[in-house]
Design brief:
4-stranded antiparallel sheet; binds zinc ion
Length: 323
């Protein structure tokens, strides 16, 4: 009998891991490049940028291969959800020796080749892939094959393209979940954050939120408005504020300086045809009041209705008692 089948959840979990590793490697360069940017002489900017990203090519290409790996695992997960037996490839002669004599793990069997996955998926799963997805997947596979089989000098991948393909893949297979929720779960389980002593630190939540807010800003900076809307419901064209709830969390960090808030995304946006603001990261909802800030030297006039947080200096003002 075959034992220890991989389930849909196992495949999805591994696929999420591939996307997150890919994300880590690209954003690490984006952060580094951003930090260097200030030091570059204005005229050299384009040349320096080209040099930097040309040297990051291998990382970007590997990050793209990870996305393709994630796609395969998501598809395998969907097939396993119908029946894991469908993933076993080859005729019985090629099955592991002695499979009929003793219990044998699923992982010992050869599974379907990547090029057969879509066909099997579309044959057994209730919902077939869209033409657009199939085309996109084909182009990703081409890139991956070029990466694996040869050193292709003409192959160029930009960080935006990798970020876009991570978000496309994630939203295609996890329709209801925002990328940053997956990101949070992943960050909660990094080797460091898995340690109990780290998790119980007061700063833990602040650091996590700070990482997400910085990544969020970086992401909306490089993505076009349509992609921000599609993946985060984020409208780049409306005026945005720092979320009072997220700001409160990050400002509890050790050695916090108010300047740090500028690294964080302004995720608080007014919902259309409503007075309500919503944080696109944490989901905090509130209204903005027009009131002078009581903090000495601050000229801010906008405050959050729930926390009394001033949107200029982030001090928390006492709330007026309503009758
Ligand atoms: Zn928030
Ligand atoms: Zn203020």
């Amino acid at each position: 009998m075959i034992i220890e089948f991989s389930t849909k959840d196992d495949f999805y979990h591994a696929a999420d891991g591939f996307l997150n590793s890919s994300w880590d490697s690209v954003t690490e360069h984006l952060h580094e490049f951003e930090a260097l940017r200030g030091a570059i002489n204005g005229l050299d900017h384009e040349d320096e940028s080209n040099r930097y990203w040309a040297s990051a090519k291998q990382t970007l290409v590997s990050a793209t291969a990870l996305v393709q790996q994630a796609v395969e695992f998501y598809i395998k997960g969907r097939i396993a959800n119908v029946s894991p037996y469908l993933l076993i490839s080859g005729n019985p002669q090629t099955w592991p020796r002695g499979a009929n004599k003793k219990d044998i793990e699923f992982s010992a069997f050869r599974t379907l080749d990547a090029q057969d996955l879509i066909k099997v998926h579309d044959t057994v799963c209730p919902e077939r892939f869209s033409d657009q997805f199939i085309q996109w997947n084909e182009s990703m596979r081409t890139i991956r094959n070029r990466v694996i089989h040869t050193v292709d000098k003409s192959l160029a991948v930009t960080p935006e393209e990798v970020i876009n393909s991570i978000l496309y893949t994630h939203s295609y297979f996890n329709a209801s979940e925002c990328w940053f929720s997956s990101r949070r779960k992943y960050l909660e389980n990094t080797p460091v954050n898995s340690m109990k002593s780290i998790r119980s630190e007061e700063n833990y939540e602040s650091h996590l939120t700070h990482t997400l807010l910085v990544d969020y800003r970086l992401t909306i900076d490089i993505l076009p408005p349509a992609a921000c809307k599609k993946y985060f419901s984020y409208d780049k064209k409306v005026k945005s504020f720092h979320c009072p709830s997220c700001s409160h969390t990050v400002s509890c960090m050790d050695f916090w300086d108010d300047e740090f808030i500028h690294d964080c995304a302004k995720t608080y946006q007014k919902l259309s045809e409503s007075e309500v603001y919503l944080c696109r990261l944490c989901g905090h909802e509130g209204r903005i009041l027009e009131r002078n800030c009581e903090e000495y030297g601050c000229e801010g006039t906008l405050q959050d209705s729930e926390y009394g947080t001033c949107f200029s200096c982030f001090a928390e003002n006492a709330l007026q008692q309503s009758n």
